[in-house]
């Protein structure tokens, strides 16, 4: 145990002296490792941050939420584009049919969504906002997507079924139209129609993916009086119960959609049932690909760094040949010499890696300081990954010089320094 402690202390001293004596040469040689580790950790940190924000934005849509549309969230290569273009959009009647016939123990909520054209919003006859995003939903929507209300409420089943001209507005809409006033009960005009504000949402803040801050939500039945539903994008959204059999629910929806559309057994589906988890799988796959690409780019810098460290170690072996001979003459074995130089090589590489991680930390600190919308943090996993890669690079770069030092003949080594 004492011998191992002595080995660590002596190796640390040799490595420190090498850094101190040849500071410029060492710094230039370690630059490749620093840049390589900086690249890997920075890329992984940026990708992880983006992935977390996307997943956080998607979490409000729930797990396994099904979107029935004319488009597929996944691979569409087996369906020609011209066929997909001619698929019909889901209709309100199909939504009502599914809501009536689907087993109640399989789903907790179902809604009919209409993606409305952007609208100009007026208050008291004065145009206040232009190109505002408007979506139309059913009364079950809050059971599917979590909504935080600042004031007011969501429209109820009665208002939805009777096409009531009511609306819920996002935080930015509320600030632009009413500033510090209470918007509940106030009237706005969209698509030339008067609409009563019954709810305002809390501010979600900017991030990755859509937010409700710049959005107005109206009942889908009311939306059908404003636009031709055949000319806008529509979707039927089904939120399953926690214990639902997803395959059974998907099959039940497919059977009912086929029956309603009177598709023959030989005919393929002219609709898609998309699971929101498909997006999550695609994002995870994209994250892996981005990390792989970033790693390949950083590999070149790491190879340069490895050659630089190997060069330092070969020079160090040559400069300390006499010292190695004396150590062997005093009883040090080949393993001791080999371990000593390998430890030194790993330590030098870890210094380069640590500088790379420090640069990433400085970069994230600056981003977080000057940006209010994007918060980046280095995970412990990425820090440990950077240090692990650094140690591996140091180990690989130091094997040949350490082996050469361990194989030196003590008599010839001592004679070299005379």
Strand content: 15-25%
Please report the number of helical segments: 14
The count of DSSP E runs of length 2 or more, i.e. the number of strands, is 11
Average predicted local confidence, pLDDT: 81
Shape: elongated
- Fraction of residues in H or I helices: 55-70%
Structural class: alpha+beta
Order of helices and strands: HHEHHEEEHEHEHEEEHEHEHHHHH
Give the count of structural domains. Answer: 2
Q: The biggest beta sheet, please?
A: 6 strands, mixed, barrel
Short précis:
The protein is α+β, with helices and mostly antiparallel strands and about 425 residues long.
Describe the structure.
The protein has 418 residues and is an alpha+beta fold. The chain folds into two domains: 192 residues, no CATH class; 212 residues, no CATH class. Helices cover 56% and strands 16% of the residues. It contains 14 helices and eleven strands. It has a six-stranded mixed beta barrel with strand order 3-4-9-6-8-7. 33% of the residues are buried. The mean pLDDT is 81.
Task: Break the fold down into its secondary structure elements and pairings.
Elements: H1 2-21, H2 23-59, E1 66-69, H3 81-86, H4 92-101, E2 107-115, E3 119-123, E4 126-137, H5 141-144, E5 149-152, H6 157-161, E6 166-169, H7 171-178, E7 187-190, E8 193-201, E9 215-219, H8 220-223, E10 233-240, H9 246-261, E11 272-275, H10 277-319, H11 321-329, H12 334-370, H13 380-406, H14 410-416
Parallel strand pairs: 4-9, 6-8
Antiparallel strand pairs: 1-10, 1-11, 2-4, 2-10, 3-4, 3-7, 5-8, 6-9, 7-8
Helix pairs in contact: 1-12, 2-10, 2-12, 2-13, 4-9, 10-12, 10-13, 11-14, 12-13
């Amino acid at each position: 145990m004492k011998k191992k402690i002595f080995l660590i202390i002596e190796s640390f001293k040799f490595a420190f002296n090498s850094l101190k004596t040849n500071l410029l040469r060492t710094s230039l040689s370690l630059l490749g490792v620093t840049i390589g580790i900086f690249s890997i950790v920075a890329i992984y940190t940026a990708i992880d941050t983006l992935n977390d924000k996307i997943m956080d934005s998607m979490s409000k849509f729930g797990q396994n939420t099904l979107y029935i549309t004319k488009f597929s969230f996944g691979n569409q290569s087996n369906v020609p584009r011209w066929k997909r273009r001619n698929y019909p959009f889901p209709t309100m009647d199909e939504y009502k049919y599914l809501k009536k016939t689907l087993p109640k123990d399989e789903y907790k909520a179902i809604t009919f969504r209409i993606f409305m054209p952007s609208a100009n919003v007026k208050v008291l006859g004065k145009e206040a906002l232009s190109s505002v995003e408007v979506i139309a939903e059913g009364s079950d929507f809050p059971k599917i997507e979590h909504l935080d209300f600042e004031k007011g409420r969501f429209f109820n089943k009665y208002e939805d079924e009777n096409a009531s001209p009511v609306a819920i507005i996002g935080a930015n809409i509320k600030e632009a139209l009413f500033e510090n006033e209470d918007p509940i009960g106030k009237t706005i005009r969209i698509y030339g129609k008067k609409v009563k504000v019954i709810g305002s949402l809390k501010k979600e803040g900017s991030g990755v993916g859509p937010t409700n801050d710049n959005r107005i939500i109206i009942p889908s039945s009311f939306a059908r009086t404003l636009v031709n539903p055949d000319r806008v994008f529509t979707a039927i959204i089904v939120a399953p119960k926690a214990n639902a059999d997803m395959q059974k629910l998907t099959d039940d929806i497919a059977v009912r959609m086929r029956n309603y559309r009177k598709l023959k057994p030989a005919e393929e589906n002219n609709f898609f049932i998309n699971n929101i988890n498909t997006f999550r799988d695609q994002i995870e796959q994209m994250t892996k690909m981005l990390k792989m690409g970033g790693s390949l780019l950083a590999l070149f810098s790491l190879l340069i760094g490895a050659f630089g460290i190997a060069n330092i170690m070969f020079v160090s072996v040559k400069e300390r040949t006499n010292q190695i001979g004396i150590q062997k003459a005093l009883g040090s074995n080949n393993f001791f010499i080999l371990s000593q130089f390998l430890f030194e090589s790993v330590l030098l590489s870890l210094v380069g890696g640590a500088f790379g991680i420090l640069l990433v930390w400085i970069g994230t600190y600056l981003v977080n300081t000057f940006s209010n919308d994007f918060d980046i943090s280095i995970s412990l996993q990425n820090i440990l990954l950077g240090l692990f890669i650094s140690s591996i690079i140091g180990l690989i770069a130091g094997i040949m010089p350490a082996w050469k030092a361990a194989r030196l003949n003590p008599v010839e080594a001592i004679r070299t320094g005379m």
